[in-house]
Amino acid sequence: MLRDSVRAFLAARGDHSWAALVDRLELGEALRDARQGAIVAEEIGRARAALPFAETAVTHWLLERGGGPGFEAAAVLTMAWAEPGMRYDMADIAMTARRDGDGWRLGGSKSAVGWAPACDRLVVAARTAGTVGERGGLSLFLLDPALAPNLRTHAYRTIDGRPAADLIFEDQFVGADALIGKPDQAIDLIEEARDRATALLAAEAVGLLDSLLAQCIAYTGQRRQFDRPLADFQALQHRMVDMYLECELARSAAWLAVEALDEDAATRAHAVSSAMVNIARGCRFVGQQAIQLHGGMGMTDELPLGHYVKRTMAIEVEWADADWHLARIAG
User: Fold this and answer.
1) What share of the chain is helix, strand, coil (3-state, %, to 5)?
2) Residue closest to 225 by CA, chosen among 235, 239, 215
3) Does 153 share its domain with 244?
4) 127 with 203, same domain?
5) Do 231 and 125 share a structural domain?
6) Backbone angles phi, psi at 158, to 5 degrees
């Protein structure tokens, strides 16, 4: 029923904003429950709807787990962790937060923070102790960007057309109540948040891949060559069967990741990284084949196809790329 409701809402004409989706479908539980969230994420991918679901859901979870304040489901929340020159190891976070009376002073930069220009609250990862590369010493802070005069924002659109921003904190003061959880002990929480967000993105990718395959089936059934539909040619049928297999492998891997989110850290990490290796391969294969099957039209922005492929490309590297996930599995 949840899947049908989300699909019908996104297929209808009208307001597809985050506020409208939450208000119409009452998605509060889907923000907390990973299984329901995966269903919503998959349908968001199928419709290629530009909605901050994974970002908001994982930040809601993080605040709840860390003992932070609760927010209405319609509030757009996002997490700022990536930094210039940093790859995917959370221990490499260098932005600092130093004590100032009862509060903290945040200094440093964050890069490519998804939905930062449109968010109501930011959760910021910063170093309160130790040196870069140490797992200890990381903390999380909650910030209202509208009430942060010493926060500079450089907003832009990513390759998939979504809002993002680079952030510079110039000695920005936050009160004692901005701290989420215990100081210096946030890295496990940050890494679990990454796995939860990655699992939701994997589910979104499944919806994207399903739609790409459906677009190819429809196009090759209509486009004719030598007085026959392209779908009659056996070589193209074989190609679409291979695409279907990749879609099903991606679906199975994504759901295994979702089911493993409540397991121990090692089991969760292995399942999520395995899923993203499969998702990355599936995105690359299905996306490239879809463009090839559409011929020259597949390279244009006039078709939805290319926009779907761009979204899959963004998902492949949003929290970590396939090489990093392979290394984590090996480790």
Assistant:
1) 55, 20, 25
2) 235
3) no
4) no
5) no
6) -85, 180
169 φ, ψ (degrees, to nearest 5) = -100, 115
The token pair at 220 is 């090759």
| Spatial distance between the Cα atoms of 260 and 268, rounded to a whole number of angstroms | 5
List the domain range (segments joined by +) for residue 110.
Answer: 77-187
Q: In terms of domains, do 126 and 116 share one?
A: yes
Number of domains making up the chain = 3
Co-location of 182 and 298 in the same domain = no
Q: Has residue 36 got a pLDDT over 90?
A: yes
Beta-bridge partners for 174: 104
71 in a domain, yes or no?
no
Nearest to 140, CA basis, from 62, 52, 56, 53: 62
Position 72 in a domain: no
Model confidence pLDDT, tens digit, residues 69-121: 999 989 999 999 999 989 999 999 999 999 999 999 999 999 999 999 999 99
Q: pLDDT tens digits for 192-227?
A: 999 999 999 999 999 999 999 999 999 999 999 999
pLDDT band at 25 (very low <50, low <70, confident <90, very high): confident
Write down the number of H helices and E strands in the chain: 10, 10
Q: Give the angle subtended at the CA of 11 by the CAs of 10 and 16, to the nearest 5°.
A: 35
At residue 163's C-alpha, the angle toward residues 42 and 7, to 5°, is 25
Q: What φ, ψ does residue 224 adopt, rounded to 5°? A: -115, 145
